[in-house]
Amino acid sequence: MKPGTIIKKIYILLFSIFIILLIIAPKLVNENSKIAIYKKDPNKIYLKSIQKIPMPPTKDNPLGIDKMGRDIMARLIIATRNSILLSLSYATISAIIGIFIGTIIGMFSFEICMLISKLIEALQTLPFFYVVSLVFYYFLKQKTYNMLQTATLFALIHGWIRFAFIARNNTLIIKNLDYVKAGEAMGASKIRIILSHIFPEVFSSISSIIPLQMARSLTTFEVVSFLQKKDKNLYPSLGELLNYMETGNKYSWIWINPLLILIGINIILAIINLQLRKKMKHLISS
Question: Residues in domain ABC transmembrane type-1 (predicted)?
Fold first, then answer.
């Protein structure tokens, strides 16, 4: 087996383990779960205080207790999981929808393609930050919070547009290449051309953008959460913990951890983006 193949399998295995950990994280941070690695509930009130003042770290609460009396470490772990899972779901769903719509648009004649593109450009003028604020406000009013539903709604409203334009541009170029026209002359169906020739090229162009879309959405989600200044009992977020920055250095032991996590995630996503771009350039050139 080639070394490159082994490395790919290791990457796939590590990514699969990472996704599984994200999914089962609520079971790992739960005082009633048998598989818990940290037996604290992120939503349980461990200390009631009339003044609602955060308590510093102790042996039982390594990162302290927030002003609502909840364990900060438990909320930080689940908040990190929520942020990554929401941004990953949003970017992935946006890419799938964008590739589908962009490829279909690109298969039309040039005039129809440009007409539809202008309509999409009008939709693109809707500010993403405004959309996020409205959607977050709506879901925070609900008793339950469905992360997949939220990510899908974001993707349907705004996220797919960038991917659709890239898929459209690639489709317009590829469908006019000689080998594609030769396939059409030999009776190849539109579906076969899309799956065999267009989709691989489109995916290679879009895959490197997904980490950037994740980083952009992750930062926006947490900024909106920070500005809302609400204590979310059922949905821990990094933005909620970053609210303590308003107190300055007084509660720096609370907000420094989510800030470092947010910066670290964005750096990792930027590195992944660079590696994917190098890899895809090599594949396209070969």
Answer: 80-273
Nearest to 165 by CA among 270, 95, 87: 95
State the maximum Cα–Cα separation within the chain, in Å, rounded to a whole number.
Answer: 79
Exposed (0-12), middle (13-18) or buried (19+): which is 91, by Cβ within 10 Å? buried
Distances (CA, A) of 142 to 41, 94, 204, 225, 229: 21, 24, 39, 16, 17
Q: Are 165 and 117 in contact (CB under 8 A)?
A: yes
* Residues linked to residue 70 through DSSP beta bridges, in sequence order: 45
Q: What are 61-81's pLDDT values in tens digits?
A: 888 888 888 888 888 888 888
CATH number of 74-285: 1.10.3720.10
Distance separating alpha carbons of residues 175 and 183, to the nearest angstrom = 10
Tell me the domain boundaries of the chain. 1-34, 74-285
Are 14 and 6 a contacting pair, CB within 8 Å? no
115-133 burial: b if 16+ Cβ within 10 Å, else e:
ebbeebeeeeeeebeebbb
The span from the CA of 105 to the CA of 114, in Å, is 9
Q: Where residue 107 falls among pLDDT bands split at 50, 70, 90?
A: confident
